[in-house]
Amino acid sequence: MITLDANPFPFAFALPHTALVIIDMQRDFIEPGGFGETLGNDVSLLSAIVPACAAVLAAWRNAGGLVVHTRESHRPDLADCPPAKRDRGNPHLRIGDVGPMGRILVAGEPGNQIIDALAPVAGETVIDKPGKGAFYATPLHELLRQAGVTHLLFMGVTTEVCVQTSMREANDRGFDCLLLEDCTESYFPAFKAAAVEMMRAQGAIVGWTAPSGLLLQALGEAAQACVAPQG
């Protein structure tokens, strides 16, 4: 077992039964010219977490942990994007419109891809989700159960929308969840702060939170213990 000194109390997990879930680290949200910027947001706030996310991903892969990537994406005909989602706000480009990186949030388009620094490798699960939550209209729940997963570590964007929704969905499905605080971000820092507090309130009502440094240290110690001479 690996135990992190998390908030509001320690979070213990077994590596073979835990998955790292990376929410929507896509070009459309992270890079200039994507959907996030068309909504009037400063995407540099989100790109700032990429180094921390990359460090966690590398360490998790090195430990042999299960990795799940999600992408918010829609069919080219937008049959899975209801007007209640597409027609919100007053952006100059909407979901499905052609932007600098292709059609926004449409499967297969350049902007819909995960950024290079966190790109999936062979064997890692990629979930295309039409909603905010990672479990809605996707096979994620069954895939995790088949893999014997009971615990989830979350990172990605944005904290108060797709990350929080996915954690709440996971909690309702019986998974114990931890959010890596410095590996998630919002276009609105106050929203991130509020979401983090809500998730860990009332004795981890949705889940735990912890800085990624604690996870990296624990994984490093576990690796050293595996190679230490016996006797």
Report on the structure:
It is a single chain. The chain is α/β, with parallel strands linked by helices and 231 residues long. The chain is built from nine helices and ten strands. Strands 7-4-3-8-9-10 form a six-stranded parallel β-sheet, with helices on both faces. A two-stranded antiparallel ribbon has the order 1-2. A two-stranded antiparallel sheet has the order 5-6. Strand 9, helix 8 (189-204) and strand 10 form a beta-alpha-beta unit. Helix 4 packs parallel to helix 9 (212-227) and helix 7 (159-172) runs parallel beside helix 8. It is globular and about 60 Å long. It starts with a strand and ends with a helix. The model has no long low-confidence stretch (mean pLDDT 95).
Can you give keywords for this protein?
231 residues, alpha/beta, 6-stranded parallel β-sheet, two-stranded antiparallel sheet, 9 helices, 10 strands, globular
- Total E-strand runs: 10
Structural class: alpha/beta
Cα gyration radius (Å) = 18 Å
Distance between the termini: 21 Å
Distinct helical segment count: 9
Shape: globular
Main sheet makeup: 6 strands, parallel
Bin the strand percentage.
Answer: 15-25%
Order of helices and strands: EEEHHHHEHEEEHEHEHEH
Poorly predicted ranges: none
- Across the major sheet, the strand order is 7-4-3-8-9-10
Mean pLDDT: 95
